[in-house]
Design goal:
flat, 10 helices, 273 residues, single chain
Length: 273
């Protein structure tokens, strides 16, 4: 077992411990345990960054080739988004009860996939690939965070006597659900455009209706509908929370499921097929 894999399993352990600590801390009203769990998240991020850095130096490219690298990087972004939110605003720390289990489970799934190195071939070596990948991580990280706030809104709105379910906090969660969803929508649009420019460099065409291209566009339209329902139809509270939850399976299918179900030019790069 290489040093990288050992460090990654240490990260899985730290993320799992933080998830357990956050859940127990909020269920049993243990603020000190919640505070300790934040430090565990920070430790996990440092270790995770070290593992990603080791691989980056060895293989010569960022974490965007193969299921292992792609999912690991999204787990990192999700955990980092939570820590930044939690450090800035104590009132939203409860979102860690959703984000950290997601980070732990997704990283655990990545560790079960093949971890063999994948070379960055000539068609992939492009400035626009870096832009495409960076905005993909920003988009999916934003959507996952919006999803977490939406889930919490629905869960807490059913418990009016819970101190965590105050009206001001629910309004805050509703606002953050929309803001992260809107940010993700913009990031996803930039990702699609950057990907088209890269595709023209790599394959000589901007758009070829490849399954992943098509499903990425479908995902963008799903979130466009959610924004339309909020801005034009005035959806808020539980209605908008559900509107933010429903598109996430579509965008995750576009990211990973399409590469498994369909034969596409993207498949080898995303999941190593």
């Amino acid at each position: 077992m290489t040093a990288e894999i050992i460090i990654m399993w240490a990260t899985v352990t730290l993320y799992a411990l933080s998830a357990v600590g956050l859940i127990i801390g909020y269920v049993f009203r243990k603020p000190n345990l919640v505070a300790v769990s934040l430090f565990v998240v920070a430790a996990g991020l440092v270790v995770h960054a070290g593992a990603i850095g080791i691989r980056w130096v060895r293989v010569g490219h960022g974490p965007y080739l193969g299921f292992y690298e792609v999912v690991s990087s999204f787990a990192f972004v999700s955990a980092l988004a939570f820590l930044v939110l939690a450090w800035r605003n104590r009132a939203v720390r409860v979102v860690g009860t959703v984000l950290m289990p997601l980070s732990f489970l997704s990283l655990g799934a990545a560790m079960m996939a093949p971890t063999a190195d994948m070379d960055l071939t000539g068609t992939l070596a492009s400035y626009w690939l870096g832009i495409h990948v960076a905005f993909a991580k920003l988009a999916y990280g934003s959507f996952i965070t919006s999803f977490a706030f939406a889930v919490l809104y629905i869960a807490l709105s059913k418990r009016p006597d819970d101190p965590e379910a105050s009206e001001s906090k629910l309004l805050r969660f509703d606002d953050l659900t929309f803001k992260f969803l809107a940010a993700g929508f913009i990031f996803l649009g930039i990702m699609i455009v950057a990907g088209a420019i890269w595709a023209n460099e790599a394959w000589g065409r901007y758009w070829g209706w490849d399954p992943i291209e098509t499903w990425s566009l479908i995902s963008w339209f799903c979130y466009a509908i959610a924004i339309h329902l909020r801005v034009t139809k005035g959806w808020r509270d539980k209605k908008f929370a559900w509107a933010a939850i429903v598109p996430l399976p579509v965008v995750l299918f576009a990211l990973l499921g399409v590469a498994i179900v369909y034969q596409s030019v993207h498949g080898a790069y995303l999941i190593g097929t």
